[in-house]
Amino acid sequence: MIHTARALGRDHDATMDAYAYLLEQLHRDDFRRLRGYVADGRSKFTTWLVVVARRICLDHLRQRYGRRQETESPDREAHAARRRLVDLLAEELDVSGVADVTAEGNPEAQLRAKELSRTLAGVLAGLEPRDRLLLKLRFEDGLPASEIGHVMGFTTQFHVYRRLNAVLGQVRAAMRGRGVQDSEP
User: For the segment 73-121, what is each residue's pLDDT rounded down to a tens digit?
Assistant: First the structure.
């Protein structure tokens, strides 16, 4: 079963996710799928299990990335880019490096920095996934607006800047609503 999950997975994490999903689905409804095997002499249990496992792993991929449309280009790079976008949307933003503690030995400043970081993480978690992706591409990955526009489907780089300013305004308003007036810890 792990071999089947590995055949459809791109990396170790994807393989383990597919394998965990496979085990969960086989366990579902008191092992209904496994009990559905009928020994009729046409195939061995192991062959049947590989087919079932492959179908479950394909269901997992389709659930995560959607079905590939016939109208989509057969270009593998475009399909891979779509998968990377979905994976990026699922990732959490890393806000650990946001607060710069100037007084490294000052416990009060460290506590304020941690509270600021925790508040910011909470605000970012409340954003739409597309807005989190926008912030991640711009501030963590450092992509230029033109490339972000191409990846996320914005018409021009100016639309990227406009959306980025709107999202940052939302973040500032949410931070003020939580009692944070400035970015200093």
Answer: 556 666 666 666 666 665 555 666 555 545 566 788 788 888 888 888 8
Whole-number Å distance between alpha carbons of 160 and 147: 10
Q: Give ranges for CATH 1.10.10.10 in the chain.
A: 95-177
Looking at residue 101, its pLDDT comes to: 46
How large is the C-alpha radius of gyration of the chain? 23
CA dist 1 → 43, 56, 58, 68, 80 (Å):
17, 11, 13, 24, 24
Within the chain, what is the greatest distance between any pair of CA atoms? 75
DSSP class of residue 100? -
Q: pTM of the full predicted structure?
A: 0.46
Domain at 95-177: CATH code: 1.10.10.10
